[in-house]
Amino acid sequence: MKSLLRIARDMLAAEPKAFLRGAILGVTVLAMGAALLGLSGWFVTACAMAGIAGIGIDFDFFRPSAGVRLLALGRAGARYGERMLTHDATLRALSALRLRLYRGVARLPFEAQNRLRGAEALNRLTSDVDALDGLLLRLLIPVATVLTVLAVSFVTLWFLVAPAVAWSVTLAYLAGGTLALIVTARRAHGAAEAAETALQSLRARTLDMAQSRADLTVAGALLRQRSGIGAAVAAEVTARNRMEAADRAGGFALSLTTGIAAAAALLSGGMLAQAGTITPAEAAIGFFVAMALGEGPALLRRGLTELGRMQVAARRVTALCDTPVRPEPASAPAREGSAPLLVAQGLTHRRAGSARATFGPLDLTLTAGETVLISGPSGAGKSTLLSVLSGLIPATSGTIALEGRPLADWPEAALRSTMTLLPQRSALIGGTVAENLALALPAERLRPAPESRSTPPEARFSDPDRVWQILDALELGEVLRRREGLATVLGPGGSGLSGGQSRRLVLARALLREPDILLLDEPSEGLDPDTAAAVLGALRTLLPEAGIILVSHRPADRAFADREIAVARS
Amino acid sequence: MTTSAKTARPRPTPQDAALRALAAPIRRPLSRAGSLSALAELIWAAQSALVAWCIDGLVSPGHFAPTPLMAAAGFLALVVLRVFLERLSTAMAQRAANGLVAETRARLIDRAARLDARARRPAPAELASLAAEKTAMLAPWAARYAPAMTRVRIVPLVLIAMTAWFSWAAAVVLLVAGPLIPVFMALVGIAAKESSERQMAEVGTLNTLLVDRIAALADLRLLGAETRAAESLASASDRLRERTMRVLAIAFLSSTVLELFSAIGVAMVAVYTGFVLLGEIHFGTWGVPLSTGAGVFILMIAPEFFQPLRDLAAAWHDRASAMAVADEIAATEATIAGSGEILGTGGAAPSLPRAPFIWSGLRVRPGPGAAPLSLPDGGVAPGEALGISGPSGAGKTTLLSTLAGLIHPEAGEIRWGETLLDAGTADAIRAGIGWLPQSPRFVDAPLAEALTLGREGDLTAALAAAQAEDIVAALPGGLQAHLGDLGGGVSGGEARRLMIARAIHSQAALVLADEPTSDLDPETAAAVLSGLMTLKARGAALIVASHDPAVLAAMDRVIAVEGETAR
């Protein structure tokens, strides 16, 4: 519950004014509804009394009937405004939440980030954010609205009808509403978590079955997998039934509350009318207002249903948003002129909990203008070595000095502008080619984003010729010119290019940064031999001064290296 | 979010035909739940009558009427009954809805489980998302929309008859306002349905933006672009929000129209009734003056006349989503029905004694609608290694799948000793077969479980025999490590060596291997090949499809698949 409240606070803080305006309109809607029914009840009863007394002619029917019509129209209008305002504010707040989540994930250690890249983890993440969209809209704003309207109607009933009626209506709603809220919050939580877990397990097992169908069949394990999915389906239904039973109990309590409040208003008002303290028409106001206020709890109903799911989601989202800030050295170190670009000594790495070192011990020196090939069989830890060299993963032992300074002394920004690593599985993002390339450049090499769509995407770069020079050198220029140039739009994950084309685009992105040190993990993978040769040959021409470390298992790639360091499986 | 099948073909049948067919088994419980909820709603009429009578008594003290205490007690008793019935009907509808979801999932998965090795659709990710989240969208429709629909057919009619009993004029007011609502809803509903679908697509896009960037975070960090990507995420979400709000502005208009009409309806009934009671209006009450009680009663039931319509409108989106999902399920089931099935059940069975494995005259369609391929005859004896060569696409994988009973051949026979491979014997024959797929993948479970797949045996010894202990040793958690989704830290060569350990563990008498050395460096390829030779030395027969000369050279015999189309 604590994380849920924190998320609510943060969302409110993102758009306080919009939420306040929306809530005020929400109060207006509910209050007008109560006024409409209360006025109608009073009007009809008062008319009846006047009719019986034979004073119909003197009865001022004009103002009440005009009031009824005005309230009916005003209520619908206020409702529209309230919905627009609160939805807009919620969308804004959710954008802010997504952004905070992104920033939190960005601060995670490299290996934890990699675990989040899986489809299952990403799926859970988005479903968690979606679950939180009702937090303000269907839970907190309705609660605030209902409480405000209760307070307003308490005062109104006190003066218009009688204090006894005001007390009975307000107390009935407060007690019943609080009870329903507590009961549902307690019970829905565990069931919602169980339902969500069962659903994710159902998803993962179905994916397993479909992807490894041949494997499982030959192993005689297909039926076993199938019954595992069956168990997940059954567990999901059980949890869902339990969750909905809790929700029905909450709904039951809310509906009962409305009934009790109305009965209490009828009793107290009716007895006062019998005693002659108030008129029957005034008694009718109390009863009708009590009925109309039932709309408030009904608003809360859906929010209550989602409460359990929200609590679970809030806990996970808060945990990610709260990722501690990466420790960062304060200032950029001065470069030692004479030192080699990169020196590693006695470098080893061992994964936590594993019995064997991934690689090492290993010594390595890289000077400017030099290309070093790191070769070795698969599983020898070549990719891990690059991650360690670029500071993504800490080394288990050994030292790394970048331009003469220990790697740990480098602030992140300075480190990244000096050294660029192109990982083996490098991802593009959805958007134009220009947007993908612009990601690689610091602000001083970019121009402000163009306002209109008619501006050519080249205008984004301060040196568009260099962009095209690199694309052409990687034999990607023609491919793009045949499409829409830098404006070519890529789908999510950069889909829309062939494997070899995306590989060259991420390479272009890395080259555009013009780093002092370039680390490339299997840059020629997915390229045919001719293209691979052209691409590797272009590296030197484009970055004559850079130190390049190349990981590859293709024998042909040796031709592009000055030296080779072999990593053996330990 | 919605289906591709939905947009693809025109529908000659009613819009919700697929949904209706899908929900046929729970039609009865749903209609019972609907009727019960209608009954619960009609109890309101009794409550109203009681209250109206009591107020009548207060206004005209001479008449016989319940005291406020009696009225309040009766009112409360009816509330309890009403709320109880509501809860009961909701429980019935929700249970039926959850049952429908579970059964639909089970049926879909049962059918998809038996797809043969040639099936490309539904794609695994599509199937998983259809079985998990999308099927779940049937539940709100069944639990909310269907009962609301039943209520709309019953409650307004009964209430308008009650109103008309006292005043035809008030009934006319409701009749005018009421049916106008469906008309407007039909108009705005079309727009609302479209816009809500578009809106869901927008929300989908917002998530895509986030997922895209989180999946690329490692790259963004390396490019020093974490902050810039956050800025672009913010501005992209902003643009999406503006578009979404324009769509919502229309969608909300539809519900505003509905609320406006119901509010005006109630207001007009109130004003009319007041004027009649006042004696200003004399028509519309069948010539008899309206009593105070009757006036209050009419006023009280007027909002309830509109309530079912409002419920239906609130559940409108549930119906649209459920229809889209039902269409997609129907399309997927049709796709599956049009694909081939595996032989046998895919369950565990006692294995047969070692024997020569021989096939002849095989003709297999490599894909649905493709011309059948003639596959060369062949066979292996225990301890013998057979290579299958041929250019890629010639049918090497198809042959291996057919031999494992994963594809029904058009013609020909496959024998394990004297036993013919058919639906009845497939499980027993497969119990003696080990399988090394071209791209190894481990199920999402601890490694020990992914390797044994529930079979008995000494895994440690098998790992030692396959020289795969060091791979496990380097994994965090060793045999408890999960190698899900992204391969979890083993390379292609390591995965193949683990697969060989799996075949040794299962004590396979025959191992079928598909391109065991593709994409591997020479050193790793040699390690995999020596693993295969270990299997052979232990007495297993090997059938290895490959175009790697080193692998083929290690085989006792090689047959070529030419990819000939059968005449």
TrEMBL record, chain A:
Taxonomic lineage of the native organism: Bacteria, Pseudomonadati, Pseudomonadota, Alphaproteobacteria, Rhodobacterales
ABC transporter domain residues: 342-568
UniProt-recorded name of the protein: ABC transporter ATP-binding protein
GO molecular function annotation: ABC-type transporter activity; ATP binding; ATP hydrolysis activity; ATPase-coupled lipid transmembrane transporter activity
Keywords: ATP-binding, Membrane, Nucleotide-binding, Transmembrane, Transmembrane helix
TM spans (from-to): 18-36, 135-159, 165-183, 249-271, 283-300
Locations listed in the record: Cell membrane
Pfam families linked to this entry: ABC_tran
Leader peptide range in chain numbering: none
Domain ABC transmembrane type-1: 25-293
Protein's membrane topology: Multi-pass membrane protein
Keyword Lipid metabolism attached: no
SUPFAM superfamilies: ABC transporter transmembrane region, P-loop containing nucleoside triphosphate hydrolases
Cellular component annotations (GO), alphabetically ordered: plasma membrane
The keyword Hydrolase belongs to this UniProt entry's keyword annotation: no
